[in-house]
Protein backbone atom coordinates (compact mmCIF):
# COMPACT_ATOMS: atom_id res chain seq x y z
CA UNK A 1 0.00 0.00 0.00
CA UNK A 2 1.41 3.44 -0.97
CA UNK A 3 -0.35 5.85 1.37
CA UNK A 4 0.61 9.13 -0.30
CA UNK A 5 0.23 8.03 -3.94
CA UNK A 6 0.05 11.05 -6.19
CA UNK A 7 0.30 13.62 -3.39
CA UNK A 8 2.67 16.46 -4.28
CA UNK A 9 5.12 17.37 -1.51
CA UNK A 10 7.45 20.31 -1.90
CA UNK A 11 10.64 19.45 -0.03
CA UNK A 12 12.82 22.48 0.62
CA UNK A 13 16.43 21.96 1.64
CA UNK A 14 18.55 24.77 3.08
CA UNK A 15 22.27 24.86 3.76
CA UNK A 16 22.92 22.70 6.77
CA UNK A 17 24.95 19.56 7.28
CA UNK A 18 21.74 17.75 8.31
CA UNK A 19 20.74 17.86 4.63
CA UNK A 20 22.36 14.43 4.26
CA UNK A 21 19.44 13.13 6.34
CA UNK A 22 16.97 14.89 4.06
CA UNK A 23 18.02 12.56 1.26
CA UNK A 24 16.57 9.70 3.30
CA UNK A 25 13.40 11.70 3.95
CA UNK A 26 13.04 12.22 0.18
CA UNK A 27 13.32 8.47 -0.26
CA UNK A 28 10.71 7.71 2.43
CA UNK A 29 8.30 10.15 0.78
CA UNK A 30 8.90 8.74 -2.70
CA UNK A 31 8.47 5.17 -1.41
CA UNK A 32 5.14 6.21 0.10
CA UNK A 33 4.03 7.26 -3.37
CA UNK A 34 4.42 11.04 -2.99
CA UNK A 35 5.56 13.14 -5.93
CA UNK A 36 8.41 15.04 -4.34
CA UNK A 37 9.47 18.39 -5.78
CA UNK A 38 12.82 19.22 -4.22
CA UNK A 39 13.88 22.86 -3.99
CA UNK A 40 17.50 23.47 -3.00
CA UNK A 41 18.72 26.84 -1.83
CA UNK A 42 22.06 28.09 -3.07
CA UNK A 43 23.77 27.21 0.20
CA UNK A 44 22.13 23.77 0.31
CA UNK A 45 24.01 22.99 -2.90
CA UNK A 46 27.27 23.48 -1.02
CA UNK A 47 26.26 20.50 1.14
CA UNK A 48 24.35 18.15 -1.15
CA UNK A 49 23.93 17.74 -4.88
CA UNK A 50 20.79 17.99 -6.96
CA UNK A 51 21.63 14.65 -8.61
CA UNK A 52 21.12 12.83 -5.30
CA UNK A 53 17.57 14.14 -4.98
CA UNK A 54 16.82 13.63 -8.66
CA UNK A 55 17.77 9.98 -8.34
CA UNK A 56 15.75 9.50 -5.14
CA UNK A 57 12.58 11.26 -6.32
CA UNK A 58 12.73 10.54 -10.04
CA UNK A 59 11.88 14.20 -10.68
CA UNK A 60 13.79 17.34 -11.62
CA UNK A 61 15.19 19.40 -8.76
CA UNK A 62 14.54 23.15 -8.63
CA UNK A 63 17.06 25.73 -7.60
CA UNK A 64 16.56 29.12 -9.23
CA UNK A 65 13.84 31.71 -8.95
CA UNK A 66 14.47 32.72 -12.53
CA UNK A 67 15.34 29.78 -14.77
CA UNK A 68 15.60 29.70 -18.52
CA UNK A 69 14.08 33.09 -18.81
CA UNK A 70 10.87 32.41 -16.86
CA UNK A 71 10.08 33.23 -13.27
CA UNK A 72 6.84 31.39 -12.60
CA UNK A 73 8.26 28.18 -11.15
CA UNK A 74 7.53 29.25 -7.59
CA UNK A 75 3.85 29.84 -8.28
CA UNK A 76 3.40 26.52 -10.10
CA UNK A 77 5.38 24.57 -7.51
CA UNK A 78 3.75 26.20 -4.53
CA UNK A 79 0.22 25.80 -5.89
CA UNK A 80 0.71 22.13 -6.74
CA UNK A 81 1.95 21.18 -3.28
CA UNK A 82 -0.32 19.41 -0.78
CA UNK A 83 2.36 20.09 1.83
CA UNK A 84 5.61 22.02 2.08
CA UNK A 85 8.43 20.65 4.24
CA UNK A 86 11.68 22.49 4.82
CA UNK A 87 14.38 20.24 6.31
CA UNK A 88 16.83 21.31 7.49
CA UNK A 89 15.68 24.87 8.03
CA UNK A 90 18.71 26.97 8.99
CA UNK A 91 18.61 29.95 11.34
CA UNK A 92 19.04 32.17 8.30
CA UNK A 93 16.13 30.56 6.48
CA UNK A 94 13.86 30.88 9.55
CA UNK A 95 14.76 34.55 9.72
CA UNK A 96 14.02 35.12 6.04
CA UNK A 97 10.76 33.17 6.22
CA UNK A 98 9.70 35.10 9.33
CA UNK A 99 10.23 38.42 7.57
CA UNK A 100 8.46 37.36 4.37
CA UNK A 101 11.43 37.57 2.05
CA UNK A 102 10.97 36.27 -1.47
CA UNK A 103 14.40 36.66 -2.99
CA UNK A 104 15.02 33.00 -3.68
CA UNK A 105 12.89 30.14 -4.99
CA UNK A 106 12.17 28.45 -1.64
CA UNK A 107 11.15 31.54 0.29
CA UNK A 108 9.05 32.71 -2.66
CA UNK A 109 7.29 29.31 -2.66
CA UNK A 110 6.37 29.76 1.02
CA UNK A 111 4.69 33.06 0.24
CA UNK A 112 2.86 31.75 -2.80
CA UNK A 113 1.51 28.57 -1.16
CA UNK A 114 -1.83 27.74 0.44
CA UNK A 115 -0.55 24.34 1.61
CA UNK A 116 0.37 23.62 5.23
CA UNK A 117 4.05 24.13 6.01
CA UNK A 118 6.33 22.02 8.20
CA UNK A 119 9.65 23.60 9.16
CA UNK A 120 12.36 21.39 10.64
CA UNK A 121 15.11 23.58 12.13
CA UNK A 122 18.65 22.33 12.59
CA UNK A 123 21.53 24.50 13.71
CA UNK A 124 24.19 25.08 16.31
CA UNK A 125 22.66 24.99 19.82
CA UNK A 126 23.72 28.57 20.59
CA UNK A 127 22.05 29.83 17.43
CA UNK A 128 18.88 27.91 18.33
CA UNK A 129 18.94 29.34 21.86
CA UNK A 130 19.35 32.95 20.65
CA UNK A 131 16.33 35.14 21.40
CA UNK A 132 16.25 36.31 17.81
CA UNK A 133 15.74 32.73 16.59
CA UNK A 134 13.16 32.09 19.32
CA UNK A 135 11.25 35.19 18.21
CA UNK A 136 11.40 34.12 14.57
CA UNK A 137 10.06 30.68 15.48
CA UNK A 138 7.29 32.12 17.64
CA UNK A 139 6.30 34.41 14.78
CA UNK A 140 6.34 31.58 12.22
CA UNK A 141 4.14 29.51 14.54
CA UNK A 142 1.74 32.42 14.89
CA UNK A 143 1.47 32.43 11.09
CA UNK A 144 0.26 28.84 11.25
CA UNK A 145 3.49 27.06 10.30
CA UNK A 146 4.32 23.87 12.17
CA UNK A 147 7.87 24.19 13.50
CA UNK A 148 9.46 21.11 15.07
CA UNK A 149 11.81 21.63 17.98
CA UNK A 150 15.29 20.34 17.23
CA UNK A 151 16.44 17.37 19.23
CA UNK A 152 19.09 17.11 21.87
CA UNK A 153 22.16 15.21 20.90
CA UNK A 154 25.68 15.46 19.64
CA UNK A 155 25.90 18.23 17.03
CA UNK A 156 27.80 17.92 13.78
CA UNK A 157 31.06 19.47 14.91
CA UNK A 158 32.93 17.78 17.75
CA UNK A 159 33.70 21.21 19.25
CA UNK A 160 30.00 21.95 19.56
CA UNK A 161 29.38 19.19 22.08
CA UNK A 162 25.72 18.37 22.53
CA UNK A 163 22.68 20.54 22.87
CA UNK A 164 19.31 21.19 21.23
CA UNK A 165 19.93 21.87 17.57
CA UNK A 166 19.99 18.49 15.92
CA UNK A 167 17.54 17.71 13.14
CA UNK A 168 15.08 14.93 14.07
CA UNK A 169 15.61 11.63 12.29
CA UNK A 170 13.91 11.31 8.87
CA UNK A 171 11.44 8.71 10.16
CA UNK A 172 10.16 11.18 12.74
CA UNK A 173 9.82 13.97 10.17
CA UNK A 174 8.04 11.48 7.90
CA UNK A 175 5.55 10.73 10.70
CA UNK A 176 4.84 14.46 11.03
CA UNK A 177 4.33 14.66 7.28
CA UNK A 178 1.80 11.86 7.68
CA UNK A 179 0.00 13.66 10.48
CA UNK A 180 -0.28 16.76 8.26
CA UNK A 181 -1.12 14.91 5.05
CA UNK A 182 -3.48 12.16 6.14
CA UNK A 183 -7.16 12.83 5.81
CA UNK A 184 -8.78 14.26 8.91
CA UNK A 185 -11.21 11.51 9.88
CA UNK A 186 -13.15 10.73 13.00
CA UNK A 187 -9.99 10.19 15.06
CA UNK A 188 -8.70 13.74 14.64
CA UNK A 189 -8.66 15.46 18.02
CA UNK A 190 -9.88 12.32 19.84
CA UNK A 191 -8.13 10.79 22.82
CA UNK A 192 -6.92 7.31 22.02
CA UNK A 193 -5.51 4.95 24.62
CA UNK A 194 -3.43 2.03 23.35
CA UNK A 195 -1.71 -0.72 25.32
CA UNK A 196 1.26 -2.63 23.98
CA UNK A 197 3.74 -5.31 24.86
CA UNK A 198 3.87 -7.98 27.53
CA UNK A 199 3.83 -7.47 31.26
CA UNK A 200 6.21 -9.04 33.75
CA UNK A 201 5.30 -10.74 37.00
CA UNK A 202 8.12 -10.95 39.51
CA UNK A 203 9.20 -14.25 40.97
CA UNK A 204 12.02 -12.59 42.88
CA UNK A 205 13.97 -9.34 42.30
CA UNK A 206 15.81 -10.84 39.27
CA UNK A 207 13.30 -13.25 37.69
CA UNK A 208 9.87 -12.90 36.18
CA UNK A 209 7.07 -14.63 34.24
CA UNK A 210 6.18 -13.03 30.93
CA UNK A 211 5.38 -13.87 27.30
CA UNK A 212 6.83 -13.37 23.82
CA UNK A 213 4.87 -10.21 22.94
CA UNK A 214 7.14 -7.61 21.29
CA UNK A 215 4.71 -4.69 21.38
CA UNK A 216 4.98 -4.15 17.60
CA UNK A 217 1.24 -4.32 16.98
CA UNK A 218 0.36 -1.83 19.73
CA UNK A 219 3.15 0.51 18.68
CA UNK A 220 1.87 0.40 15.08
CA UNK A 221 -1.66 1.23 16.30
CA UNK A 222 -0.40 4.14 18.41
CA UNK A 223 1.66 5.53 15.52
CA UNK A 224 -1.23 5.24 13.05
CA UNK A 225 -3.72 6.86 15.45
CA UNK A 226 -1.28 9.73 16.03
CA UNK A 227 -0.87 10.26 12.27
CA UNK A 228 -4.66 10.42 12.00
CA UNK A 229 -4.59 13.41 14.32
CA UNK A 230 -5.48 11.71 17.60
CA UNK A 231 -4.05 12.62 20.99
CA UNK A 232 -2.51 9.25 21.84
CA UNK A 233 -1.38 7.71 25.12
CA UNK A 234 0.49 4.43 24.94
CA UNK A 235 0.57 2.29 28.08
CA UNK A 236 3.54 0.06 27.43
CA UNK A 237 4.98 -2.98 29.11
CA UNK A 238 8.64 -3.72 28.32
CA UNK A 239 8.79 -3.30 24.52
CA UNK A 240 11.19 -4.89 22.07
CA UNK A 241 10.76 -1.90 19.73
CA UNK A 242 10.95 1.87 20.24
CA UNK A 243 7.62 3.59 20.94
CA UNK A 244 6.48 6.27 18.46
CA UNK A 245 8.35 9.52 19.06
CA UNK A 246 5.55 12.00 19.60
CA UNK A 247 3.17 9.80 21.55
CA UNK A 248 2.87 10.08 25.34
CA UNK A 249 4.12 6.82 26.86
CA UNK A 250 3.31 5.46 30.31
CA UNK A 251 5.74 2.68 31.11
CA UNK A 252 4.49 -0.18 33.26
CA UNK A 253 5.88 -3.51 34.36
CA UNK A 254 3.18 -5.75 35.86
CA UNK A 255 -0.42 -6.42 34.84
CA UNK A 256 -1.57 -4.63 37.99
CA UNK A 257 0.39 -1.51 36.99
CA UNK A 258 -1.06 -1.72 33.48
CA UNK A 259 -4.54 -2.05 34.97
CA UNK A 260 -3.99 1.06 37.13
CA UNK A 261 -2.62 3.10 34.20
CA UNK A 262 -5.52 2.07 31.92
CA UNK A 263 -8.09 2.87 34.61
CA UNK A 264 -6.54 6.31 35.17
CA UNK A 265 -6.80 7.19 31.46
CA UNK A 266 -10.02 5.45 30.49
CA UNK A 267 -12.55 8.02 31.67
CA UNK A 268 -11.12 10.60 29.29
CA UNK A 269 -10.46 8.25 26.33
CA UNK A 270 -12.69 8.07 23.24
CA UNK A 271 -11.03 4.86 22.10
CA UNK A 272 -9.23 2.03 23.89
CA UNK A 273 -7.20 -0.46 21.87
CA UNK A 274 -5.94 -3.27 24.13
CA UNK A 275 -3.16 -4.66 21.97
CA UNK A 276 -1.05 -5.66 24.99
CA UNK A 277 -0.55 -9.22 26.10
CA UNK A 278 -0.79 -8.80 29.88
CA UNK A 279 0.40 -11.77 31.89
CA UNK A 280 -2.68 -13.65 33.08
CA UNK A 281 -1.08 -15.02 36.23
CA UNK A 282 1.62 -14.14 38.70
CA UNK A 283 3.50 -15.99 41.39
CA UNK A 284 1.40 -15.95 44.56
CA UNK A 285 4.47 -14.93 46.51
CA UNK A 286 7.33 -12.91 45.05
CA UNK A 287 10.46 -13.54 47.10
CA UNK A 288 11.98 -10.42 48.64
CA UNK A 289 15.53 -11.61 47.93
CA UNK A 290 17.02 -13.58 45.02
CA UNK A 291 16.12 -17.24 45.26
CA UNK A 292 19.43 -19.06 45.49
CA UNK A 293 20.14 -22.06 43.31
CA UNK A 294 20.19 -24.33 46.33
CA UNK A 295 16.71 -23.14 47.37
CA UNK A 296 15.01 -24.00 44.05
CA UNK A 297 11.31 -24.51 44.69
CA UNK A 298 9.80 -27.65 43.16
CA UNK A 299 6.84 -25.66 41.88
CA UNK A 300 5.61 -22.10 41.72
CA UNK A 301 2.14 -21.31 43.02
CA UNK A 302 0.29 -18.89 40.72
CA UNK A 303 -2.71 -16.62 41.09
CA UNK A 304 -4.72 -14.67 38.50
CA UNK A 305 -3.74 -11.09 37.77
CA UNK A 306 -7.25 -10.04 36.75
CA UNK A 307 -8.49 -9.15 33.29
CA UNK A 308 -7.89 -5.48 32.53
CA UNK A 309 -10.61 -5.11 29.88
CA UNK A 310 -13.21 -6.74 32.10
CA UNK A 311 -12.28 -5.08 35.39
CA UNK A 312 -12.13 -1.54 33.99
CA UNK A 313 -15.56 -1.63 32.32
CA UNK A 314 -17.01 0.73 34.91
CA UNK A 315 -14.35 3.36 34.06
CA UNK A 316 -15.16 3.56 30.32
CA UNK A 317 -16.30 6.88 28.91
CA UNK A 318 -19.83 6.75 27.51
CA UNK A 319 -19.74 6.10 23.75
CA UNK A 320 -16.07 5.07 23.77
CA UNK A 321 -15.00 2.49 21.19
CA UNK A 322 -13.33 -0.50 22.83
CA UNK A 323 -11.11 -2.83 20.82
CA UNK A 324 -9.57 -6.03 22.10
CA UNK A 325 -7.23 -8.56 20.56
CA UNK A 326 -7.42 -12.31 20.81
CA UNK A 327 -4.59 -14.69 20.29
CA UNK A 328 -5.91 -18.22 19.94
CA UNK A 329 -4.60 -21.59 18.92
CA UNK A 330 -7.74 -23.76 18.91
CA UNK A 331 -11.37 -23.17 18.02
CA UNK A 332 -10.26 -19.66 17.13
CA UNK A 333 -13.52 -17.95 16.08
CA UNK A 334 -15.66 -19.44 18.84
CA UNK A 335 -13.26 -18.29 21.56
CA UNK A 336 -12.94 -14.86 19.97
CA UNK A 337 -16.73 -14.41 19.83
CA UNK A 338 -16.95 -15.37 23.49
CA UNK A 339 -14.32 -12.75 24.39
CA UNK A 340 -16.07 -10.11 22.29
CA UNK A 341 -19.24 -10.61 24.34
CA UNK A 342 -17.67 -11.28 27.75
CA UNK A 343 -15.46 -8.18 27.62
CA UNK A 344 -18.18 -5.98 26.02
CA UNK A 345 -16.04 -5.01 23.03
CA UNK A 346 -16.95 -3.15 19.83
CA UNK A 347 -14.28 -5.01 17.87
CA UNK A 348 -11.98 -7.92 18.46
CA UNK A 349 -8.94 -8.49 16.29
CA UNK A 350 -8.31 -12.20 16.14
CA UNK A 351 -5.13 -13.94 15.24
CA UNK A 352 -4.38 -17.59 15.08
CA UNK A 353 -1.01 -18.04 16.78
CA UNK A 354 -0.34 -21.15 14.68
CA UNK A 355 -0.52 -19.39 11.34
CA UNK A 356 2.70 -18.43 9.66
CA UNK A 357 3.38 -14.69 9.76
CA UNK A 358 0.87 -14.06 12.56
CA UNK A 359 1.31 -13.39 16.26
CA UNK A 360 4.21 -12.45 18.50
CA UNK A 361 7.49 -10.96 17.38
CA UNK A 362 6.98 -11.00 13.60
CA UNK A 363 6.46 -7.90 11.43
CA UNK A 364 3.30 -9.18 9.79
CA UNK A 365 -0.09 -10.34 10.94
CA UNK A 366 -3.01 -12.21 9.47
CA UNK A 367 -6.15 -11.19 11.33
CA UNK A 368 -9.90 -11.36 11.26
CA UNK A 369 -11.86 -8.45 12.73
CA UNK A 370 -15.08 -9.37 14.50
CA UNK A 371 -17.78 -7.07 15.76
CA UNK A 372 -21.11 -7.85 17.44
CA UNK A 373 -23.10 -6.89 14.33
CA UNK A 374 -21.08 -6.83 11.09
CA UNK A 375 -19.82 -9.80 9.09
CA UNK A 376 -16.27 -10.89 10.05
CA UNK A 377 -13.60 -9.09 8.01
CA UNK A 378 -10.95 -11.62 7.02
CA UNK A 379 -7.79 -9.70 6.12
CA UNK A 380 -4.88 -11.11 4.11
CA UNK A 381 -1.31 -11.30 5.44
CA UNK A 382 -0.37 -7.66 6.05
CA UNK A 383 2.40 -5.69 7.71
CA UNK A 384 1.50 -4.66 11.27
CA UNK A 385 1.22 -0.97 10.22
CA UNK A 386 -1.30 -2.00 7.54
CA UNK A 387 -3.25 -4.07 10.08
CA UNK A 388 -3.24 -0.99 12.33
CA UNK A 389 -4.77 1.10 9.54
CA UNK A 390 -7.41 -1.53 8.83
CA UNK A 391 -8.40 -1.63 12.52
CA UNK A 392 -8.50 2.17 12.79
CA UNK A 393 -10.61 2.45 9.62
CA UNK A 394 -13.23 0.40 11.44
CA UNK A 395 -12.85 2.39 14.65
CA UNK A 396 -13.51 5.57 12.64
CA UNK A 397 -16.62 4.00 11.05
CA UNK A 398 -17.97 3.23 14.52
CA UNK A 399 -17.15 6.72 15.84
CA UNK A 400 -18.89 8.25 12.81
CA UNK A 401 -22.01 6.22 13.61
CA UNK A 402 -22.18 7.33 17.27
N1 LIG B 1 -6.42 -8.79 28.36
C1 LIG B 1 -6.67 -8.00 29.45
N2 LIG B 1 -6.21 -8.36 30.69
C2 LIG B 1 -5.55 -9.53 30.84
C3 LIG B 1 -5.32 -10.36 29.73
C4 LIG B 1 -5.78 -9.97 28.50
O1 LIG B 1 -7.29 -6.94 29.29
N3 LIG B 1 -5.12 -9.86 32.06
C5 LIG B 1 -6.90 -8.33 27.04
C6 LIG B 1 -5.84 -8.39 25.95
O2 LIG B 1 -5.13 -7.17 25.86
C7 LIG B 1 -6.67 -8.63 24.69
C8 LIG B 1 -7.85 -9.43 25.21
O3 LIG B 1 -7.88 -9.19 26.62
O4 LIG B 1 -7.15 -7.44 24.13
C9 LIG B 1 -7.78 -10.90 24.96
O5 LIG B 1 -6.56 -11.41 25.42
P1 LIG B 1 -6.23 -12.96 25.29
O6 LIG B 1 -4.90 -13.22 25.91
O7 LIG B 1 -6.48 -13.45 23.90
O8 LIG B 1 -7.36 -13.61 26.15
P2 LIG B 1 -7.59 -13.88 27.66
O9 LIG B 1 -8.71 -13.02 28.10
O10 LIG B 1 -6.33 -13.80 28.43
O11 LIG B 1 -8.20 -15.33 27.62
P3 LIG B 1 -7.57 -16.81 27.44
O12 LIG B 1 -6.32 -16.83 28.25
O13 LIG B 1 -8.64 -17.69 27.95
O14 LIG B 1 -7.33 -17.00 25.97
DSSP summary: helix tally: 14
| Uncertain parts | none
Number of self-contained structural domains? 2
Number of strands: 19
Bound small-molecule species:
cytidine-5'-triphosphate
Relative helix content = 25-40%
Written overview of the protein:
The chain has 14 helices and 19 strands. The chain is α/β, with parallel strands linked by helices. Strand 17 (367-370) and strand 18 form a beta hairpin. Helix 5 (91-98) crosses helix 8. The mean pLDDT is 94. The protein has helices spanning 19-31, 44-47, 50-57, 73-80, 91-98, 105-112, 125-129, 131-142, 170-181, 216-227, 255-266, 308-311, 332-342, 384-401, and strands spanning 8-13, 35-40, 83-89, 117-121, 146-147, 191-196, 201-204, 207-209, 231-236, 248-251, 271-274, 281-283, 302-304, 321-328, 347-352, 364-365, 367-370, 377-378, 382-383. Helices cover 34% and strands 21% of the residues. The protein has two domains: 8-181, 3-Layer(aba) Sandwich (Rossmann fold); 191-400, Rossmann fold, CATH 3.40.50. It binds cytidine-5'-triphosphate. Residues 255, 274, 276, 278, 280, 305, 307-309, 324-327, 339 line the site of cytidine-5'-triphosphate.
Amino acid sequence: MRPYEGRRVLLGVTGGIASYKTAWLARLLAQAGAEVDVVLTRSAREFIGAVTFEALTGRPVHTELVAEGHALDHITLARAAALIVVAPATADFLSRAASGRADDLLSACLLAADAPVLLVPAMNDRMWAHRQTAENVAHLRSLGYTVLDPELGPLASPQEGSGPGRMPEPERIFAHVGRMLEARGALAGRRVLVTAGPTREALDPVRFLSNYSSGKMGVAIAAAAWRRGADVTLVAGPLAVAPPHDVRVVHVESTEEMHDAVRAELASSDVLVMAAAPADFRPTHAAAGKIKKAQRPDSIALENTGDILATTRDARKKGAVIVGFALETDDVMRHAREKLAAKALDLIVVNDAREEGAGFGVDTNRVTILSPSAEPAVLPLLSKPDVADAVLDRVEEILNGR
